[in-house]
Amino acid sequence: MYFTDLDSLIAEINKIYNAKLKLVGEEMQAIAKRRYTWSHIAFKYELLVEEALTSSKKVDVEAETKNIPYDQLLELGHAHLKTNLNF
C-alpha cells in the first residue's frame, strides 16, 4: 500500500474496506440463499413437527426472560416480555 498524504492513505484504506465489505456481503448472500429458502425452512419445520409428535417425553417450554428482574427488563425497554400471556 502506497500513499503520499493523509487523503491518499484514507483512500487506500477505503478501497480495502470496501473490497472486504463486498466480499463479506457476497458470503452472507450465499449463506442466506442456501439456508433460508422456503424449501429448507419447510423441511426444518417438518422435522420439528415430526419430533414433537413422536417424542415420548415432552419438555416444558418457558421463556428465559422469566428469570430477569422486571426492573431490568423495563430499563432495557423489554418489560412486555415479563408476561408470557402473549406468547
Layout of SSEs?
Elements: H1 6-35, H2 38-54, H3 70-76
How would you describe this protein?
It contains 3 helices and no strands. The protein is flat, with a radius of gyration of 24 Å. It is 62% helix and 0% strand. The longest helix is centred in the N-terminal third of the chain and has 30 residues, at 6-35. The chain starts with 5 loop residues before the first helix and ends in an 11-residue tail after the last helix. By secondary structure, it is mainly alpha-helical. The model has no long low-confidence stretch (mean pLDDT 83). The chain has helices at residues 6-35, 38-54, 70-76.
Briefly, what is this?
It is built from 3 helices and no strands. The protein has helices at about 5-35, 40-55, 70-75.
Secondary-structure-based class equals: mainly alpha
Distance between the termini: 55 Å
Unreliable parts = none
Rounded Rg: 24 Å
Shape call = flat
Percent of sequence in beta strands: under 5%
Oligomer: single chain
Mean pLDDT across residues: 83
How many strands, what sense, and barrel or not for the largest sheet? none
What percent of the residues sit in helical stretches (DSSP H or I)?
55-70%
The string of secondary-structure elements, in order, is HHH
Task: Quickly count the helices.
Answer: 3
Number of strands: 0
